[in-house]
Amino acid sequence: MFDLSFGEAFHVAFADLALASFWIGVVQIIWIDILLAGDNAVVIALACRKLPPKVRTWGMVLGAGVAVVMRIAFTSVVAVLMFIPFLKIVGGLALFYIAVKLLLPDDSDHCEDNIEASTHLWRAVRVIAIADIVMSLDNVIAIAGASGGNPLLFTFGLLVSIPLVVLGARVVMTLLTRFPLLIWVGGALLGWIAGQVIATDPIIKDFLVSQYSENIARIVEFSSATLGAIIVVAAGRKLRSNMSSCAGDQKGSE
């Protein structure tokens, strides 16, 4: 990502502290972090809402840490990952699975055929990690672009994102507790992101641009994102209905 060695790059970065462009970059990165923190905050809040209150904060902190680790891990390979065909399709499908799973109630483990609920700390962190693997790529690209190749700015962007994600997750979790309907909004948001990720896979986007136009590619991306949100909500409602029937059958057999 950077042309200079690690030490040289940071030496140049600190020399830039006196430049106005550096501080403009700081403001840009903070704004980007605020915008991008929303997706991670929703995932963390949905995954941690079933945790006992005593460990819920740990779940949010660890989840935010996972989000940042994913971004750091992608830094050195971001240019390559952007162009691997089918990678985003696989990631989008994984995010669909996670989005639906997070919509299921706590009693989902009473039915063996249903998806297991995230009721334990490390299980919730695992769910967050898988979702962040899918979502962190675009976040890294945005922060890397705003840093302009300055490693100090890039590191600053990653560090600032931690408290923003934790704060965002806490706010979202409070809202989810007061307004349970927002759980479906969060699930729909993840479905939207999943559909968008799939539609922007190089194998799909390059085909649409080469055969049709950039505008058609954007229309397909928007349509795919909309369909993704609908699919997640519909699948969540269906599975919850099946689990209610299963729970009713179990009570009837007792």
Unreliably modeled segments: 107-118
Largest β-sheet summary: none
Number of strands: 0
CA-to-CA gap between the ends? 62 Å
Mean pLDDT: 75
Alpha-beta content class: mainly alpha
Sketch the topology as an H/E string, one letter per element. HHHHHHHHHH
Helix content: over 70%
Word description of this protein:
- By secondary structure, the chain is mainly α.
- It contains ten helices and no strands.
- α2 crosses α8 (182-199) and α5 (87-103) packs across α6 (121-147).
- The longest helix is centred in the last third of the chain and has 40 residues, at 214-253.
- The protein is globular, with a radius of gyration of 20 Å.
Give the gist of this structure.
The protein has 254 residues and is mainly alpha-helical.
Entry keywords:
254 residues, mainly alpha, globular
Give me the secondary-structure topology.
Blueprint: H1 6-15, H2 20-48, H3 53-75, H4 78-81, H5 87-103, H6 121-147, H7 151-178, H8 182-199, H9 202-211, H10 214-253
Helix pairs in contact: 2-3, 2-6, 2-7, 2-8, 3-6, 3-7, 5-6, 5-8, 5-10, 6-7, 8-10, 9-10
